[in-house]
Backbone:
């Protein structure tokens, strides 16, 4: 059963590998998506409550991160990265992560 929860520090390496694997064969990629996540996590716009993992039987199969962004005077959220392991793609995991993040 799919569960979504906030990431923990113990998840960092697994999340890094999920993102790297998810983007490895993506048509549009730069190869640094997993490093972007680490950089965003260290920034002042990081929101720990919006760094979420999707798990199946306690294995991380997906990840999403929302961070703050300023647009003019307004503070909004931006989404990146969003990833699911290839064998779990096109099964709605990304959509469920998005919905959970914007609740």
Residues:
């Amino acid at each position: 059963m799919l569960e979504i929860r906030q990431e923990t520090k113990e998840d960092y390496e697994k999340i890094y590998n999920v993102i790297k694997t998810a983007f490895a064969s993506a048509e549009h990629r730069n190869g640094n998506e997993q490093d972007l996540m680490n950089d965003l996590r260290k920034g002042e716009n990081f929101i720990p409550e919006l760094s979420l993992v999707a798990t199946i039987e306690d294995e991380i199969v997906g990840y999403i991160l929302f961070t703050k962004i300023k647009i003019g005077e307004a503070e909004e959220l931006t989404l990146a990265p969003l990833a699911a392991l290839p064998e779990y793609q096109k099964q709605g995991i990304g959509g469920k992560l998005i919905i959970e993040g914007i609740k």
User: Anything to note?
Assistant: The beta strands are 2-6, 46-56, 59-71, 74-84. Residues 69 and 76 are 5 Å apart (CA to CA). The mean pLDDT is 94.
